[in-house]
Amino acid sequence: MPDWSYRTLFQPLMFSFSAETGRDLALGAMGRLSRLPFGPTIIDLFGHMRPDARLQTHLQQLPIDSPVGIGHLVDPHGVATAAMTRFGIGLIEVGPIAVRELPLLQPMQRRDMNKAIRIPEAAFADSVDDWAERLSRFDRQSVRVLARIVVGANTSAEQATAECLRLQSRLAPYVDGFVLATADESLRFCWSPDAWRQHVQTIITAIKSANRLACVAIPAELNPHQLHSIVAPAIEAGCRVIQVESRLVDAPDSWLIGHLALKSVRLTIDHLRAEFGADVSVIAGGVHEPIDAIELQSHGADCVLVDTGLVYSGPGLPKRINEAVLYASLAKSRELNSSASESVRPPLPIQKYTWFWSLVLGAAMLLGAVLAFGIASTRVILPYDEVFVGMSRHELDMINPRLLAFMQHDRVTLSGTMFAIAALYLFLSWYGIRQGMHWAMVAVLTSAFFGFVSFFWFLGFGYFDPFHAFVTTIMFQFLLMAWQGDLGQAQLTSLPNLRETPAWRAAQWGQLLFVIHGAVLVGAGVVISGVGCTDVFVREDLQFMDTCPGDLSLANPRLIPLIAHDRASFGGMLITTGLAVLLTALWGFRQGMRWQWWMLLLAGIPAYTLAIGVHWAVGYTNWWHLAPAYGGLILLVAGLALLWPWLGRVDPVHRDEWNRLLSS
Predict the structure, then answer these.
(1) Can you tell me the mean pLDDT for 432-436?
(2) Whole-prediction pTM value?
(3) Which fold has domain 3-336?
């Protein structure tokens, strides 16, 4: 459920149910997808969320790929944990886990006005045996796993210690660390200071002896005395990681988890830093927007946790946080060291870079589009076409007065898709791949690969076009050079998103329309290629020419293979265009990247103008036949209109906010 589908379609649906029902539906779908043979690959395809290597950091001695994690309340039963590890995170907290199952005594409730979830004070958890079985099957990739261990109501300090030791021993083979909860049922506040000190000393010693990370979780709403009484004994016992939860008291029997606790989280971090200094690592929760993460880091948080933020903001939140955190880190490091923010390699010769050859590929496609349009709009067919069918242009016109007009409509439309591909490749190469954007490189290479594969459609229609083959061979070498070239290090060329503004929310609808647009183009290309390799004509084609395939074959048996060549080629180019649009829409949209908006405009308008215009020029105006073109044009215009405030306009408020963050 990417943001463009979650925020537009699925979140309203999920929110029409109770909190637990909506959660179970969403997590159940993600969990089932992650268990399919190619499910994880599909999740990666839709999100492209792997964190940048420059985000790698350490939580004490534990290396993590990203300072962004997911909290335990998102998926307390481990239904979709495997799916969420592919959200671009560095760590994930699983649980809560108890020796035996602790039932949920009251249902969870959403507090949408506060962007919070209400949970009961009493601890709830699945059993350690259930979690050990889940974790034993868990392919977590490089994501670090922290297990949150809890005990039941009215548990004495001695019994709690024994249960936590059992949990630690049972789970140690499957996790990287443990989180000791102190807020569930306010249990730790009821113990004497000596009981708490003895408890954490015993548990943390056991955790450290198993070479696992020990973390103590505290609620955000603590006074300095409570903070000291809980944290100081844990630090004395050897714990060096404190988690500040976005948890506030709602009533004597419940907590509120969510964004409304963020101010208290920041104050608690300030108290921790003031009393215990920089030797303690802090994990902070309550993040709903990228700016929350930046501000928590400015207060001293080493990692941030997303929990209710996934519910209210969407699964793309960790990716947006990663981009904002990386930009802030690089910008500040450049200020501290003007010579370089990271190790810089000597520049390579221009021909060694991927962007150069993909740019050449786009330029070659543009030249081909101009030539194709020039020929299609004048003589329509080439001399080698005449040689293949053994008839001149005049003789073909005598077979059917609308035959050349029909072929012209095919070939002009084909040139329109070539103009679109050229625009996409040129923009993606210059503004994307040249800046080290991995997603842009994958979009171009994937699209071009399928374009070259479509050349072999001739096996279905029987016409080997020698000129087409010659040009394809040359351009395929450009693709190979781009594929083996050097991408270079990614550069952040726009200010990453910080907030969910109205422009961002409108852009989710625009992104949805372009995802649909790209997918429809791919599907249409598959259908048209299939028609070109089999039946060649649809009913409307034959009505326009007032003929049937038998009459055309009788006039010249090579005529239909010649027409089929045009149709299949057009289908292949539609697939190529659709893939470039689809992958850009899935992965590429970033706030303020105006070039993406102009790329889509300059790719779409010529393609649809030529496709629709040539139909009217030759008199092929069947409404059913033109409906897909009109529909695509509507999708294009609507998508561009929705995206302009976010992609195309530089928001001065957004720029000022970044300046404030970087100067603070």
Answers:
(1) 91
(2) 0.89
(3) TIM Barrel (3.20.20)
